[in-house]
């Protein structure tokens, strides 16, 4: 890794072919849209794909949201049951009630995916700040889909080049209290109406780095357009098996005070699963960087 030391700030970037940068010495509470560090951070994310900012221990909810506004435009997720009650920009992954009331949604993101690929305008950046760690599961894993595309076999590449991939969220729907007495069929139909399937190019081009990226995941991608059901079953299984090989996986092991930000164009990710009875709480904010998600789509 290459280390850059500026005053009391240490920035360690990934070596070529790897992902992940580390920043020590920043206090994101001091950042505004005009802070010179903001452009440095954006470029770190584009180059390294995932960035950890260490030692953000005293960041409260308002300061977290303010930091998101400094980076870009915070997302308000389309389902309210994920919202923090006072800060709708904060997506709450949590299995611990607050004052006896359900607070956020538990068990989120434990499958390979990129956030909001099922929307017309997918999410540029995701940032996550854990508040309560389970004892047994303190990691998030990532796969660099530009590298995966570079290493695809000619046979698999022939299926994805020029193709469109259908992204669907309904299989990941979390049942809510208001769903009592509604059938599974009704739940699926209602959710598909709220969040219909969306297609994007199977290969996208990054608007900043120019990299070509395989934009599919076993979590949200249901098929490639134009293939029969049987051929899709075979091809998608082969693609997912290739993508999810251990050699492609980069794992971040969380430390107290970590704040992670990553580029959803370039990476798929998967959260770890805690043991039964363990508690956890994470605050996620999605951020749009106001650029096209990929070359050829409107920002």
UniProtKB/TrEMBL annotation:
The keyword Iron applies. Keywords: Dioxygenase, Iron, Metal-binding, Oxidoreductase. The keyword Membrane does not apply. It comes from the Bacteria. GO terms for molecular function: dioxygenase activity. Residues 14-284 form the TauD/TfdA-like domain. Belongs to the TfdA dioxygenase family. PANTHER family: (3R)-3-[(CARBOXYMETHYL)AMINO]FATTY ACID OXYGENASE_DECARBOXYLASE, DIOXYGENASE RV0097-RELATED. This is TauD/TfdA family dioxygenase. It comes from Candidatus Methylobacter oryzae. The lineage of its organism: Bacteria, Pseudomonadati, Pseudomonadota, Gammaproteobacteria, Methylococcales.
